[in-house]
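User: Show me a protein chain along with its predicted structure.
Assistant: Here is one chain, sequence first, then structure tokens.
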Amino acid sequence: MKRKVSSCSIDSEREREATAPNSSVRKLGLVSSPRSPSPLLLPSPSPRPPPPPPPPPSLPPSLKGAIPTAIKSLDRLRILRLGHSSISGIPSEIGSLSCLQTLDLLQCNKIQALPELPSSLTCLRVSSEWMKALPDLKDLVKLEEMCLGDKDPKKLICPSTRMKPKSRSRDLLVVRIVLPKLKMLELSHSRIGELKLRHDSLSCTHLKKLVLSGVNLEVVPELPSSLSVLSIRCCSSLRQLPAVHHLGKLSELNLIQSAVEEIKGLQGLIALEILYVAHCEIRNLDGLGQLRALRSLILSDCDSLGRFPDISNLKMLNVLVVQRCRMIPDVEGLME
């Protein structure tokens, strides 16, 4: 019995390119001359070039300098968004804003450090190319969403370029994030060498989405069982993931431009619907054939992956893409 797959793309390394021959056509106008009995063929006048486009509107000047200490008088402030600006400092008085819930400082690339933040925060988003130290998080027990980085997370993904591990810095950080209400965490800091999401009996028991980026990240000892989305991006030093067999709620797994060689416990991801692996050093996908809930499987530019498991049991699969994986000779289970 033939398998039904809604979308299937298997690209070989050799792709043919078809080019059409160039052709040019020149228009001629027929003009009669009083001095000549025969008509003359002359080029028709060329059309006038279109007028130049109007200049783009000038952008308003960006915020600059440090935030005034008078911000402490805004004692009812709940949301503060200053992202994509040139502010260079946050005063310690911000810690007195007991009603502040959202602080957004994405791409404020002149900020070097943050003061003590109010414990009322539920959303914290900060990224700066000059960030030298991570903020103190121990009192932010109400945080539900957090994005921290020294780069813009969206600019870390470069699918066309394979990243090579950089020389390891001597001042890498071991970061512990144990926030009981945290639901979403995006971490893209180049100074983090190890990330711990558990400390003694405390852990991130409500964490649903985890996105990790960082060329120096080498160790992630354990992942919380509450995860539903896990993305590992541009982690060129992270060669081993912790076992994932206990992630029974995980529905989406993305490995992009990472040095991970194996996904231990893959067969335990009974709720997994999306698996996307690209530009990785992955060597096998043992257990893939047992992921009966899988709907989308995309493998791209995985040159170390030499064996593809039998997928005949993946009855829910409707998207299958295998491209530029040079060591994979064929895909078993498509015709069963």
